[in-house]
Design goal:
The chain folds into two domains: about 160 residues, P-loop containing nucleotide triphosphate hydrolases (Rossmann fold, 3-Layer(aba) Sandwich); about 120 residues, no CATH class. With about 300 residues, it is an alpha/beta fold. It has a five-stranded parallel β-sheet with strand order 2-3-1-4-5, sandwiched between helices. It has a four-stranded parallel β-sheet with strand order 7-8-6-9, sandwiched between helices. It is globular. Helix content is about 45%, strand content about 15%.
Length: about 300
């Protein structure tokens, strides 16, 4: 009996595929708009059991970049997604999975502001504020449980503190890197706004001398030369930089051998403006020879 669809074991040849997934309210829609603007052919809410057939059809049509959004709206086929994702990688498909996340408080605020129901909330009828709050919290908790395994296998982007324009820019940075080598991401942040949940390593540099207390340096950032000169003159800064560099140099080959696509190193200070920014810039320069290196400044980029 003939069939137009390929057999399950038939491999899909190499292509450029981005899998967009994550928490409802985490920023997937904004990411899909960014990918569409970047020239990707975008498909939203594709059931996981149709993923392989869709990619084979794309292969027949010719080379084009594809972005596919899959989330809990396709809960029935969700258990198939992780095995398929691993199969695609095993078949040599250049697939990147980006998981969009945010802390629970942020997700609840976003749903409250948009007045949109969560896809996993059982009772969508009008209710008291307390009942609605509890139902939304339960839905978010359940969604985290359902997506936990996929999150582990993906590049996580924490959007809790990101503005839409900032999110779009970061997504574009993630998808333009080429090849299969490990991409090293350095991110500065302010502890007062929370630790990025997408970080693989977090270094606290609040113990270093703070340029903020110099009135002339206060309005500047770690990317400005006067701030860099101030920090270079502090022996503790050089020691911190050399120790972080030595740690990463020691362990990067192990992470690369473990088939990791991205490794995010977050550097935090009090305000995310001076010390952490300077160290991210310095580390990015130091590891430029590594290959794929990205820089993010969570607080500065949001301005």
């Amino acid at each position: 009996m003939s069939s137009t669809s390929a057999q399950p074991h038939e491999p899909v040849t190499k292509s450029n595929v981005v899998l967009v997934t994550g928490m409802s309210g985490g920023g997937k829609s904004e990411a899909m708009h960014a990918l569409e603007d970047a020239g990707f052919f975008c498909v939203d809410n594709l059931p996981a059991d149709l993923l392989m057939d869709f990619l084979r059809l794309e292969q027949q049509r010719g080379e084009r970049r594809v972005a596919i959004a899959v989330d809990v709206r396709s809960a029935g086929s969700l258990p198939l997604l992780l095995p398929l994702f691993k199969q695609l990688r095993a078949d040599g498909v250049a697939v990147r999975s980006i998981f969009f996340d945010a802390n629970t408080e942020t997700l609840m605020r976003r749903f409250s502001e948009t007045r949109r129901p969560h896809p996993l909330r059982q009772d969508q009828s009008p209710s008291s504020d307390d009942d609605g709050h509890r139902a939304l919290l339960e839905a978010i908790t359940l969604e985290r449980e359902l997506l936990a395994a996929l999150r582990v296998e993906s590049t996580v982007l924490d959007t809790s503190q990101l503005r839409p324009a900032q999110l779009r820019a970061w997504v574009r940075d993630l998808v333009v890197v080429e090849g299969h080598s490990l991409t090293l991401v350095f991110e500065s942040f302010a502890f007062k706004h929370g630790v990025p949940s997408d970080a693989d390593f977090v270094f606290d540099v609040r113990v270093l001398p703070n340029p903020y207390y110099d009135r002339a340096l206060r309005p500047l950032s770690g990317r400005d030369q006067p701030v860099a000169d101030y920090l270079v003159a502090q022996p503790e800064v050089g020691l911190m930089l050399s120790q972080i560099s030595a740690f990463l140099t020691q362990w990067l080959p192990k992470f690369a051998a473990d088939q990791r696509s991205y490794l995010t190193v977050a550097i935090g200070c009090t305000g995310g403006q001076h010390r952490s920014v300077y160290l991210v810039e310095a580390l990015a320069r130091h590891f430029a020879h590594h290959g794929q290196v990205l820089k993010r400044h969570r607080e500065l980029d949001a301005k």
